[in-house]
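A quick word before the example. In earlier lectures we treated sequence and structure as two separate objects. From today on, think of them as two lines of the same record. Here is Galectin written that way.
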Amino acid sequence: MRIRGVIPEKAGRFYVNLLCSEAPGSEAALHFNPRLDESAVVFNTLEQGTWGQEERGSGIPFQHGQPFDVLLIATEEGFKAVVGDSEYHHFRYRIPPARVRLLEVGGDLQLDSVKIF
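And the structure line, produced from the sequence above:
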């Protein structure tokens, strides 16, 4: 999938969740969470109401006031995050991607488009 948008000037963080159902507290096969307020990008899962071990990408490829383009690609081993033209992080599956039913995007961002392919 491709997610495009703009990071507002005073943004703190935003998220992309790949959820296993529409139920509140649903398991998340992927929690992609750029945190501009911490200069970090966190990757995680939510299983049976418990967050897993956080993984953090190297540096933060997002800037206040700037557009962004993120590709989240399901590979054989995990989700590959590509930001702009550069591979950023590879997050190994903890929950099979076939269980994903819902995409949730929110937080401090101006969302321009989401394409699933």
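Notice the following. The first strand starts at residue 2 and ends at 6. We will return to this example when we discuss secondary structure assignment.
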